[in-house]
Design a protein that fits this description.
Order of helices and strands: HEEEEHHHEEEEEEE
CATH topology of the largest domain: SH3 type barrels
Shape: rod-shaped
Strand content: 25-35%
Oligomer: single chain
Largest sheet: 5 strands, antiparallel
Number of domains: 2
CATH architecture of the largest domain: Roll
CATH class of the largest domain: Mainly Beta
Strand order of the largest sheet: 10-9-8-5-11
Radius of gyration: 49 Å
Number of strands: 11
Structural class: alpha+beta
Length: 207
């Protein structure tokens, strides 16, 4: 019971205004004691809250608040340990946050690199378009169709590839080629390969 009474006396809030003067002469006038801690008292002043340590106060003040140097030292050490622990926790949280940001940046960079690797270059797209166009303009259906010699009625260009490395075959009016008429288009043979051309550009050659 005695210990409980002492605890209440030491840590109860005091709302009465009073004055304090430190050993070195600093004065705290018309202040209220907010709380008493083992190593000092917390004062409410006109300018805010201040803590004055018992080691700065006269003996009569220390005795009044039952100051114990051993308890004060242990309390200060505990407070410092808590502050250090809190500092380390905050540093660890900041480090983890920075690591997570760096990790997400690496993941995003890898995703972007994968997308860029999967996307064909301009040259590759041109080559693919050329291949498809070549498939369209190169005949694979000349079996059973009679061939004749045809003469070009006008200039005509056959696109072989498009894009950066595009290529074409330029046909001149009056040139003759072996070929066949397939209804909606015609085919002519050039160096053993058949190419599609409009039927309107050809006429049977006359010897």
């Amino acid at each position: 019971m005695k210990a409980l009474t002492l605890f209440i006396v030491c840590f109860a809030s005091v709302i009465l205004a009073e004055d304090f003067k430190t050993i070195d002469g600093q004065e705290y006038k018309n202040v209220a004691v907010s709380r008493v801690e083992p190593d000092g008292i917390v004062l409410i002043t006109s300018s805010g809250i201040s803590k004055v340590y018992f080691t700065e106060l006269p003996k009569e003040v220390r005795d009044r608040f039952h100051y114990d140097a051993t308890q004060a030292t242990a309390y200060a050490a505990d407070q410092n340990a808590q502050l250090e622990s809190l500092r380390k926790q905050r540093e660890e949280a900041r480090r983890k946050e920075a690591d997570e940001i760096e990790k997400q940046a690496r993941i995003q960079g890898q995703k972007q690199a994968n997308i860029e690797q999967q996307q064909p270059t301009e040259e590759e797209r041109g080559a693919e378009q050329g291949r498809r166009l070549s498939e369209l303009t190169t005949s694979r259906s000349k079996e059973g169709i009679p061939e004749h010699t045809y003469e070009l009625l006008q200039d005509h260009t056959i696109q072989i590839r498009v894009g950066v490395n595009g290529a074409s075959i330029r046909l001149r009016r009056g040139e003759r080629y072996r070929g066949r008429i397939l209804g909606d288009h015609a085919e002519i043979d050039i160096n053993g390969i058949s190419y599609w051309v409009p039927s309107s550009t050809l006429a049977l050659a006359r010897d």
